[in-house]
């Protein structure tokens, strides 16, 4: 069972569920690496929640708290927040580091829906 964020649109992953939810997914997954102390992380999460609704059924939009889940953060070398990693078939195929406007996120993520 997938856990969703309080607003219901983002899939919450942890170190324990990362392999099942992200790496074994049958569609592209974007993972938002964030922390509570990161103001830009809060701003981007609102845009991602809206984009999650737009991409329903085509892409999973997931979020992982880096402070509570250090294993995935270390495994993927996340050094700056927010960091978005796009996975396809268990491999990282794209990344966005830092806060970006919603239209930029939409355009960047939509590229991973093709092919």
From TrEMBL:
Signal peptide: none annotated. One of its GO terms (biological process) is cell redox homeostasis. Disulfide bonds join 38-41. The record marks 39-40 as: Contributes to redox potential value. The keyword Zinc does not apply. Residues 1-114 form the Thioredoxin domain. One of its GO terms (molecular function) is protein-disulfide reductase activity. It holds the Pfam family Thioredoxin. Keywords: Disulfide bond, Electron transport, Redox-active center, Transport. The record marks 32 as: Deprotonates C-terminal active site Cys. The active site is at residues 38, 41. One of its GO terms (cellular component) is cytosol. Belongs to the thioredoxin family. NCBIfam families: thioredoxin. This is Thioredoxin. It comes from Micromonospora peucetia.
């Amino acid at each position: 069972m997938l856990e969703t964020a309080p607003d219901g649109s983002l899939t919450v992953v942890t170190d324990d569920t990362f392999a099942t939810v992200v790496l074994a997914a049958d569609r592209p997954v974007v993972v938002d690496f964030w922390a509570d102390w990161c103001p830009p992380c809060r701003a981007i999460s609102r845009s991602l929640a809206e984009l999650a609704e737009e991409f329903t059924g085509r892409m999973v939009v997931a979020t992982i708290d880096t402070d509570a889940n250090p294993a995935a953060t270390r495994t993927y070398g996340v050094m700056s927040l927010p960091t978005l990693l796009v996975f396809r078939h268990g491999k990282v195929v794209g990344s966005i580091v830092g806060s970006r406007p919603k239209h930029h996120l939409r355009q960047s993520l939509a590229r991973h829906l093709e092919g």
